[in-house]
Amino acid sequence: LKDSYAPELNITAAVIEGMVPNYRNFIATADGSVGSGFAMATLLGLEPHYPDMRINDHLNDAGRKVADYYRTQCQTPAYFTLPMVPLKTLFKGNQSPANIPAFQRAYRDNVMGKGTPAKGVRTLVASCVADDSPMSLVPAADSRKLVREWRSRGGKVDYQPTDCSMVKFITDMYGWGTDLLGMQTIDWF
Questions:
Q1: In angstroms, rounded to a whole number, what is the distance separating the alpha carbons of residues 8 and 82?
Q2: Distances (CA, A) of 82 to 35, 60, 69, 70, 144
Q3: Residue 183 DSSP class
Q4: Strand pairing partners for 128?
Q5: What gap in Å lies between CA 114 and CA 167, rounded to an integer?
Q6: Cβ neighbours of residue 163 under 8 Å, at least 6 residues apart?
Q7: 75 CB contacts (<8 Å, ≥6 apart)?
Q8: What is the pLDDT of residues 121-150, one digit of tens each?
Q9: What is the pTM (predicted TM-score) of this model?
């Protein structure tokens, strides 16, 4: 998007890691996992731009208390709270927030891949190669789909899958942790 807001910048490369190409899929995957809090925070982060979501209208009493607390915090509580809590327990009628009709427009509007990285900007996408770890909150297929879509429209996109598996965690905890922090992309730079 730099051509539309900062054409004077000479951006030649971009790295995208830990992105959420499809919010609906992310919410459905993270719900009930170690990332439940992150999924809840994501919903609340969408709401200011999409007031028609009216999240409070869909939350039960416990859910409203959680949402009220999250709205006063930075992102840190989201990463460490609500692990393994099914989000439907915070919504009226045990609804999964991935399926609530009032949220679908926000999800659709924010699917990545509708555009293409700016011409001449080489882009690296790094993500977990498979959904084989508690840290795999973003479906691996969503990242691969994003790369395919950008490439199909002429984007200069490299894809670097990361081994986020529990086998790697057990056999190479240092490598697992540094990869999750993006250190495996240093050579690409």
A1: 43
A2: 8, 16, 12, 11, 28
A3: G
A4: 162
A5: 35
A6: 128, 129, 176, 179
A7: 41
A8: 899 999 888 888 777 788 999 999 999 999
A9: 0.86
Residue with tokens 């965690």: 169
CA distance 74 to 71: 8
Token pair 């081994």 is found at: 163
Helix (H, G, I), strand (E, B) or coil at 165: coil
Give residues with Cβ within 8 angstroms of 86, minimum separation 6: 31, 32, 36
pLDDT, mean of residues 61-88: 88
DSSP 68-123: HHHTTS-SHHHHHSSTT--GGGGBGGG--TTT-GGGHHHHHHT-TTSS-PPTT-EE
For residue 168, count other CB atoms closer than 10 A to its CB. 17
CA dihedral (116, 122, 128, 129) positive or negative: positive
Mean pLDDT, rounded, for 3-18: 87
Q: What is the pLDDT of residue 69?
A: 92
pLDDT, one tens digit per residue, over 83-125 is: 899 999 999 999 999 999 999 999 999 999 888 887 888 999 9
